[in-house]
Write a structure and sequence with these properties.
The chain is an alpha/beta fold and about 500 residues long. It is about 40% helix and about 20% strand. The chain has 16 helices and 16 strands.
């Protein structure tokens, strides 16, 4: 850990601890064994499961059909924690503020009008605001059953577009918020080079995002060094999109990052809007996903976020590449993006996961539900995701989202198995939504039978972060969030 970051973290933690008290937030790490009556393992449901967790928060052993001995007994149904592969934390503060028509007709009001409002909202956001919003969001994620997040982070500079004294100030704030909440973090600093196709100059709302490739790689390299020994944090990169990162800086960033971290995650927005596709065809003579597949060595390190508008060749090419499609149904629905070609992608064997993106909703169940329901609405058929006759739609959705999310975040998560992080979600078996359900039917009921939250407890990286539906520091975190929101809303009036 560099001395500069040590000092920064000390300052940030001192500020945090004065209000929260780290000791009151999360319990100390210790070797522990947990016994549960029923758990969803990699190979299916198992009874009388003993889960042994080491000092680093990694599962050391999993044994089924065994006696509890002196292990802590977990009452309830135990599932692996769900990865949330795509987040813009600061946008949580803007949720609900764009539900007005910003143009003459509803047809004209689109992602592009929403984007203008979003850019304007971040102009005055301070580092303290950034941390407060992210901490509140991450507590909400944990309570919903997300135990890891991919933070697609492009708020690097001060309101004037100048670096902070500590150039990684905003990234440190995200890391501190994740530590405060106790959620696993894949931090994805964003390269944002231009305002749009053709090298358009950034507007006022974009000036906080712009970095030269060298500055970007220095930022990323410092974060890799800082978090090298932290099993709860993984560093990747996120070239924002082919709209915001032309071919030359994209290639330089990819080459530089591969030298720094050969197996590190790479995320990019892709083909979210029809205009994205049309504009890229105009400027580059190719569709954006097709261009990426031909020019960027897309493989299992990659996550193409949204990938909403694909042709047949792009569907099969993306599936063959091993990359993950990052689907964010509640945000895509809120923005009017369109629907991902899900059945064709499943048939092609493609990997996918879910994210809450702009956080108009923070619920893995709602993301999965609307992934399926969107396809039902356009096809006028049911059980799109089910694997063959008699297959469970919910189980297929849940299992695929676990696997794809874990791959996209580049961390050993997404399963209750030896060598994976101890990320466990405990459901209330007596919850009306779940009572009397078991096996695949339980997962189907979890996703498709209501909006209530049956999550009782959450263990993340070997620490209890949610107990009986509450986070130990949620009142203090909420108070800091309210302070930030009060200031931001007053400034926007």
């Amino acid at each position: 850990m560099s001395r500069s970051f040590t000092l920064t973290r000390s300052r940030l933690n001192a500020e945090l601890l004065s209000r929260l008290g780290k000791g009151a937030n999360l319990p100390p790490m210790m070797t522990q064994s947990y016994w549960c009556e029923r758990a969803l393992l990699r190979d299916g449901w198992a009874d009388a499961v003993l889960i042994e967790v080491d000092l680093a928060g990694t599962i050391a052993a999993v044994t089924s059909d065994t006696d509890p001995g002196d292990a802590d007994r977990i009452g309830g149904i135990v599932l692996p924690g769900m990865p949330n592969l795509h987040s813009h934390a600061f946008q949580r503060a803007a949720a609900g503020l764009t539900e007005r028509r910003f143009s003459g007709t509803g047809v004209d009001d689109s992602f592009w009008t929403w984007r203008q409002v979003m850019h304007g909202f971040v102009i005055g956001l301070t580092p303290e605001d950034n941390q407060a919003i992210a901490a509140q969001l991450y507590v909400e994620m944990l309570k919903a059953g997300y135990t890891a997040v991919g933070e697609f982070h492009y708020l690097h500079l001060d309101p004037d577009g100048k670096p902070y004294a500590d150039r990684a100030e905003m990234s440190h704030r995200i890391a501190s918020a994740a530590e405060q909440a106790g959620i696993g973090l894949t931090h994805l600093p964003v390269l944002y080079s231009v305002g749009g196709y053709g090298g358009v100059e950034p507007n006022d709302g974009q000036r906080r995002y712009i970095l030269e490739v060298e500055d970007f790689l220095n930022l990323v390299g410092g974060l890799i060094s800082t978090h090298a020994d932290d099993p709860q944090v993984r560093i990747g990169i996120a070239p924002h999109s082919v709209r915001q990162v032309p071919a030359a800086p994209l290639a330089a960033a990819l080459d530089g990052f591969t030298e720094l971290l050969p197996d590190g995650p790479i995320h990019i927005h892709a083909a979210e809007q029809v205009k994205d596709v049309d504009d890229h065809v105009t400027y580059a003579g190719a569709r954006p996903v097709a261009w990426l597949l031909d020019n960027a060595n897309v493989d299992g390190r990659w996550c193409l976020v949204h990938a909403t508008h694909l042709d047949t060749g792009e569907v099969s090419g993306l599936a063959r590449s091993g990359a993950v499609a990052g689907l964010c149904l509640t945000t895509e629905g809120n923005l009017g993006d369109g629907l991902f070609p899900f059945p064709d992608y499943l048939d092609a064997g493609g990997a996918w996961g879910i994210g809450s993106d702009s956080h108009v909703s923070v619920s893995p169940l709602e993301e999965l539900r609307w992934l399926e329901y969107g396809q039902r609405l356009i096809s006028r058929t049911r059980n799109i995701a089910a694997s063959g006759t008699g297959g469970s739609t919910g189980t297929r959705l849940f299992a695929d989202a676990l696997a794809g999310g874990a791959e996209a975040l580049g961390r050993p998560i997404g399963a209750i198995a030896t060598g994976k992080r101890a990320d466990l979600v405990v459901l209330d078996p007596d919850h009306p939504q779940l009572f009397g359900r078991s096996g695949d039917t339980l997962i189907d009921a979890l996703i498709f039978s209501g909006n209530a939250n049956p999550v009782r407890h959450v263990l993340c990286g070997g620490r209890w972060v949610i107990r009986d539906g509450r986070h130990a520091a949620e009142d203090q975190i909420a108070a800091a969030y309210r302070t930030a929101m009060s200031r931001l809303m007053a400034a926007s009036l």
